[in-house]
Amino acid sequence: MTRKASIERNTKETQINLSFTIDGEGAAKLETPVPFMTHMLDLFTKHGQFNLDLTANGDVDIDDHHTTEDIGICLGQALKDALGDKMGIKRYGNAFVPMDEALAQVVVDLSNRPHLEIRAEFPSQKVGTFDTELVHEFLWKLALEARMNLHVIVHYGSNTHHIIEAIFKALGRALDEATTIDPRVKGVPSTKGML
Ligand SMILES: [Mn+2]
């Protein structure tokens, strides 16, 4: 069984069509008007061994905020839908990823309890034309809609592009681990009997 889900979301601000496969090959087909996010989602997909098909349009004449935020919403919803009843998953994932001088750690719990903790400083407010504060916006909406507990820690780093890239790679790897089916897990991995 391949775990996947599709989301279509149309508002006056953005139009998003997204298909996400947990059990993928790292293949991304991305069309977005936010090149830096395209780059980040490409490596998230690659390092998570997911597949991601995404077509996004949005009011980037204002700024990248709505489009980045709404991609996070749709990806979170697709992740939640694709996980289904969460039978047999590992549930937790932890990944450290270095990118040259930067080291990021991402820890996730697919707990059905949305939470974001982020310990990261971005030395630059912009990477290219992208506002780096939108990383927080994206991660929070992703965590909220996927109903996961997401902790992002940047241990150190000086280049903002490297720092954010390390975060997205670690996010992919942590989610890959958390979504993996462990044959030893019977039912859902919770003493409550549900997630
Ligand atoms: Mn890069």
TrEMBL record:
Organism of origin: Sutcliffiella tianshenii
Catalytic activity field: D-erythro-1-(imidazol-4-yl)glycerol 3-phosphate = 3-(imidazol-4-yl)-2-oxopropyl phosphate + H2O
GO molecular function terms attached to this record: imidazoleglycerol-phosphate dehydratase activity
Subcellular location: Cytoplasm
Entry keywords, A to Z: Amino-acid biosynthesis, Cytoplasm, Histidine biosynthesis, Lyase
Keyword Methyltransferase: no
NCBIfam families on file: PRK00951.2-1 (NF002111), PRK00951.2-4 (NF002114), PRK00951.2-5 (NF002115), PRK00951.2-6 (NF002116)
Name this protein carries in UniProt: Imidazoleglycerol-phosphate dehydratase
Segments traversing the membrane: none
Pfam families given in the database record: IGPD
The UniProt record lists the keyword Cytoplasm: yes
EC number: 4.2.1.19
Family, as annotated: Belongs to the imidazoleglycerol-phosphate dehydratase family.
Biological or metabolic pathway of the protein: Amino-acid biosynthesis; L-histidine biosynthesis; L-histidine from 5-phospho-alpha-D-ribose 1-diphosphate: step 6/9
Catalytic class of the enzyme: lyase
Lineage: Bacteria, Bacillati, Bacillota, Bacilli, Bacillales
Domain of life: Bacteria
Matching CDD domains: IGPD
Signal peptide location: none
